[in-house]
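ping. complex inputs:
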Amino acid sequence: MIARLRADARLLPVLGAIVVAFGAYAHLTGNATFAQAGTYAAIYAIAAVGLSILLGNVNQISVGQAGFFGIGAYSVAYCTAVQNWPFWPAALLGVVVAALVGLVLGFVALRFRGHYLAMATLAFGLIAVGCFHETKALGGAMGIGDIPFARLGPVSLSGEAAYWFAWAVALLVAALSLNLLHGRTGRAFETIRNDELAAEVVGVPTRRYKIFAFAYAGALAGLSGAIYAAYLGIVVSEAVSVALSIDLLLMVVLGGSGGVSGALLGAALIGFLDIAGHQFENWREVAYGVLVVLVVVVAPGGLAGLLRRRATSPPRAERGPVSVVPATRVQAPAASLPLAVDGVTKRFGGLVALDGVSFRLQPATLTSLIGPNGAGKTTLFNAVCGIGRLSAGRVAIGGVDVSGWQPHRIAALGVGRTFQNARLFGEMTVLENVVAGAFRTERSDPASDLFALPRSRRERREANDRARATLARLGLEHVAATYAKDLPFGDRRRVELARAIAADPWLLLVDEPAAGLNAAERTTLHEDLLRLRDAGTTLLLIEHDMRLVMAISDRVMVLEFGRTIADGDASSVRNDPAVIAAYLGTAS
Amino acid sequence: MIQLLVAGLTVGSGYALVALGIHIILRATRIVNFAQGEFSVVGGLFALTFVQVLHANSWFALIGATLCGFVLGLAFERLVLRPAARSGEIGLTIATIGTVFILLYGHALVPGWGSLPQPLPAFSGEASDVITAGGVAVGVQSLWAFALLLVALGALYLFFERTYYGKAIRAASNNPLGARLVGIDVRTTGAISVGLAIALAAYGGTIIGPIALVGGAGGVAITIKGFVGAIVGGLESPVGCVAGGLLVGVVEKLLQGVFSYGVADPIVYSLLLLGLLLRPQGLFAARGAIRD
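pong. complex structure:
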């Protein structure tokens, strides 16, 4: 992820230089058509950057961006041409309204995925254009004309001035967006794109960030529409129809979604082709369609992806003196129990996976949870982490009743977890995975990320240092720069453990950490877990390796058919007849 | 009122077949085909070519257009859907949106098709013929459209219930791995499903041709309305898709009759959003986004 952003940041000045060269060329040759095409490319690029982040960084599709573009365009058209406002407040109004509508659409979009989301956003775009078309105040089918040019001080932003203005805005938006992606917000996006459930469990409020992404993309499309209206001088509803939504999608897909350079490239490319092929309108659009299908099939990274592949080597681990600022650890509440589970029941239809399970964990102890397959062990972990709704009962963590909480809020209390099938963020490096694990200890908000305020940059640095220290603690520095999806199996589990302890949890749930490990790896794991316990962490462990369980557990609980059938120290559980029956199926 | 109802059922027949096509492709490939409405438009234009170039009557044109639709669907599956399958759900969705562009602007380039809608000759008598019953005049072409919809549904029912390929397609849609284990060629059944769905779209575009015209840029709207129908009726149920498609046609015509032409569409699209929101069962993996 960082590697991609770096490539993006390196491409940005190059694109800026091309913009300047192109503008100078249009100026010297006096070619007004060129300047015009360049201006439109810049205007659409602004909206495309927002969509690119939504699609490529958060994995949410929108086929309704023209709706937001229309909100910006009609705000400027109505406020300046009808109400005689100046351009700037009108544009600001448009951006704010577009962002607010984006919030609402984002909230609705939480319910959808993939092609349903595409359909829902398409419907939004159609509704928006229908509303513009039917509103008398917005000129109905005739639209609004005679929109004055925007003014920047004494300069009227028309002709070549508009070219420079639009590109200045586009590049500024791109630079700010890169800041955003570099910061904590971008890391949250990346975890959502990789694995939403794992993102929640490391403490990312995924819903909030998805809604924010929609609002951000909406605001940028609104800004784009505002500049468009003042530049063209007329807004009609056909100009903000579904065709524009699809055009924007086209730019992003052709250029390469994710980050900013692909969106800029795509917008510039389409802007250029629009002019080059203006006599062959239908052929041009057919060619766009063919290109999109080809890009999806042959080069899913788009143009920017092809450029990146040439420009960047695989990520290298940075070395250097590491001075670790300790994380502001969420303190374990001294007086109360780390975990209290009371009568927790979970039904899936007719199947009762957990049937009134109750237990308490004492601080700084290691408790193992064993039982045959299907006993409900992982379901119990999910119940504690807030994944899925409880059918009955309550869970209290550190004395706080967390029943019905979202997983990210529970994680924020200081709870870590690993999954049976190691849910790492595959497209992120090991270091980035561990940094993400400490997400909940950081405080930077989207606004400070956007403007790269000192706090955002300091947090990013500290998070990296801390993650490197965590990796060092587990002896994993050598894989820091490897993408998680390329890791060998044993390392995957250890990296997931590193991610889970990155934020110094005082309650840690570990799901079958020894599965698939060789003897040496098991010994290391054994030591790691004991070290965590001795440092004051309360551990709950699901494990099938009995030798490991018997060796390290302070207490063993046995679950069968969703009920606790035995609970005590290792030796008493080992000799419990009910346990032997459950495991060996002795006739009773 | 009755006239609006009949007009609604007529355009609804087209939506119903688009909805059914979306359902079949969704079942077979797990993807919503955004180009379904465009295929309906192109299918109607095939029929137009049969009429204009081969001087066929509308009946022959209907059969020809359906067969052409089937072949076009096989090509679509082979050239777009199958290669794009590796790119995941969003990639596939974008690929079908790209196909919309190809068909939408491509059909305007074909000699004789152009970008403006044209009427198809009537299935019997003149296009303006009406039957008057109980003081209400009903267009003969509307009756044909409705009757032909029923014929198609009957044929589909027989195909899926009585033939080997129909059963194989259903098996493969229900459980691709299981189907492969019992020796069904899942790739072939997938291709045939898509061919069938596109053939249906072409058939639907043709049967409403004498009334609603063929060609033009309305394919996206047809897709959405077909999808609205499928959502309202239930995407997983073929009968629901047909009923939903008809219902959307009726609602649209009633709204157009009561309000103006331009207000009807946004309301229909709002129905889509509402339907998606209020009918979570079967539409999303589970309630709420992050539960697994």
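Chain B touches chain A through 52 residues (CB under 8 Å).
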